[in-house]
Specification:
Chain lengths: 256, 307
């Protein structure tokens, strides 16, 4: 019975959504017309070569930067099996979002390649399927947070231009969570709409109905009574001091 | 220090449950009380960080652990029960991390020392419990069956666990835990639903993500994921979807009019909380279970089925 039910599932080709990628750029592939090596004519089938590429000066400081953070502390364990990408919720929707490739680039310190993926770098929904299935407990879901920290440090301008919405929303969250100690969901929704220039939608029918419903049954007023934890200012100060004195990339651009 | 009695448990409500998701809060308390456990809210709680603090080192662990300290200091309880899956994940993540990593524990304790709010240091000995797992382990499905006075015969329910209730096992499982739900095929909600007389349907998206985390920044992703879940449940013949997380409700219920607008009527299905259905089966009225709070209108679906 159980088997029969399983067969009703849509039969997606395994790994169908994963885009193949390679780190060799097209202009470093050379195809010779007539090539003779050591007196042997190798033109035809054997004439495709890759220009030699030598990475001699590895920048280990970049690797350490990630390893020192709480979220990226297991980066050295990854052996690139790709289980994270195969199970990812986001990859079928954003095909360029590939956790395995991002971890590989972070291991190598390949910032040039990482830069190409800034626009999808923060699309992780944090569902932890990858961390569940990872055979080496790398915790890729949290590694994506480390990726966020890395691109925030090295590409602040691109983050500002391509990920402005995410940056703004993160700041609203920080202000609320660290600043007030509690989350006001109504304020979060309205201020995020304002920041992204969608104030008009707040006056649309769907939003209006929801607000009216909440005002009618009294939930809107419970939001006003949410308040702050007693003496939260001391916790706030301690958290801000902690972040200021951190010597890892976790303190960069915290917005506090 | 007020000590809790044997049939009381320290309860962390979280920000959503005290405001817009009061339906879940109230029905959880009703159901627990009927099953013989009174949930006592910890005073002065603070936000758990809802996953937005993860990249801030030990500060992300301070947020949940302060609540654990409150439970210990004010209510004398090592353990803390919560209903929100996101809070549950954040609590368990912090507890497991500081249990395994001395450096992170001392970093968190340094923050505690600076605030001067508590006299003692944090000791990683307590546990965070999700209400579903808590009721299952403490009371069991048989207790649910005993309390059912109004069995929901003929109601087809699609159980939706979401992501963070059962995943990742590195945070949900520990050596000293009571029985935990399976990470890939959870079943506690199935057992509870069958105990109250409802019928569960298999639809394949039980542990899929609702995209709730990026709901504010990137609602398109969430809409696509939610529409897939709802339409699959509808195709499998479900009358309602049962949830155990207020974030899933934010994505599946509150946004449902927008999802229907975009993906059509296939994505329209009433959304309820598991505890609401349990409260209904335990003999509480629909008003007490706050079914009217849900945007997707479960009242109509329940009425059609004769409840």
């Amino acid at each position: 019975m159980a088997l029969e039910k399983q067969e009703q599932r849509p039969a997606a080709e395994k790994g169908e959504h994963i885009v193949a990628r390679h780190l060799i750029e097209d202009d470093s592939i050379k195809e010779e017309k007539n090539l003779v090596i050591d007196g042997v004519d190798v033109s035809g089938r054997w004439n495709t070569f890759i220009l030699s590429r030598v990475d001699s000066e590895f920048d280990r400081s970049f690797f350490r930067e990630i390893k020192d953070t709480v979220v990226g502390s297991r980066i050295n364990r990854c052996w690139q099996c790709g289980m994270c990408t195969a199970s990812c919720t986001v990859t079928p929707l954003y095909r360029r979002f590939n956790p395995r490739a991002f971890i590989y680039m972070m291991q190598l310190g390949n910032l040039k390649e990482l830069k190409k993926y800034i626009d999808v770098a923060w699309r992780c929904v944090g569902c932890y399927k990858c961390s569940q299935r990872c055979p080496k407990q790398v915790n890729p879901a949290e590694m994506m947070e480390a990726l966020g920290l890395v691109i925030k440090k090295y590409f602040p301008e691109e983050v500002h231009s391509k990920l402005k919405v995410d940056e703004d929303v993160k700041k609203i969250y920080d202000d609320m969570i660290i600043g007030h100690g509690r989350l006001d969901l109504a304020k979060l929704h309205t201020s995020a709409m304002q920041k992204t220039g969608r104030t008009k939608e707040l006056l649309g029918k769907i939003e209006r109905d929801a607000i009216f419903k909440m005002a009618k049954d009294g939930r809107a007023f419970s939001i006003l009574r949410l308040g702050k934890p007693h003496n939260w200012s001391r916790s706030k100060e301690a958290i801000e001091n902690y972040l200021k004195n951190l010597n890892t990339i976790e303190n960069g651009g915290t917005g506090v | 220090m007020d000590k809790l009695s044997e049939n009381q448990a320290a309860y962390y409500p979280g920000c959503a449950l005290l405001t817009i998701d009061r339906a879940y809060n109230n029905s959880s308390k009703l159901v627990s009380k009927k099953m013989g456990i009174e949930l006592i809210e910890i005073p002065d709680y603070n936000c758990c960080g809802i996953g937005e603090m993860k990249s801030k080192g030990a500060a992300s662990m301070y947020m949940p652990l302060r609540n654990m300290m409150l439970a210990k200091n004010r209510l004398g309880s090592k353990n803390l029960v919560m209903a929100c899956s996101v809070c549950y994940h954040e609590f368990r993540r912090s507890i497991i991390r500081v249990r395994e990593n001395r450096n992170e524990l001392s970093a968190v304790n340094a923050i505690f020392k600076e605030t001067g709010e508590f006299e003692d240091e944090y000791e990683p000995d307590g546990d965070a419990r999700h209400i579903l797992e808590f009721l299952y382990n403490e009371k069991g499905a048989d207790e649910v069956r005993r309390n059912t006075v109004n069995p929901l015969k003929g109601l087809k329910v699609a159980p939706y666990y979401g992501c963070l209730y059962s995943r990742p096992s590195m945070y949900t499982f520990t050596d000293k835990k009571p029985q935990m739900d399976n990470s890939e095929r959870p079943r506690f909600m199935h057992e509870f639903l069958e105990a109250i007389g409802a019928e569960t349907v298999f639809y394949g998206n039980e542990v899929q993500c609702c995209g709730g985390r990026n709901l504010v920044q990137d609602e398109e992703t969430s809409f696509a994921l939610c529409s897939q879940t709802i339409s699959k449940a509808k195709k499998a013949g479900a009358d309602v979807i049962a949830l155990i997380c207020p974030k899933c409700a934010g994505a599946l219920d509150v946004n449902q009019p927008k999802i229907v607008e975009k993906f059509g009527k296939d994505s329209e299905l009433p959304i309820v909380y598991l505890t609401q259905l349990m409260a209904l089966a335990f003999g509480f009225s629909k008003k007490e279970a706050e079914f009217g709070d849900m945007i997707s209108d479960p009242l109509k679906a329940l009425k059609e089925k004769g409840f």
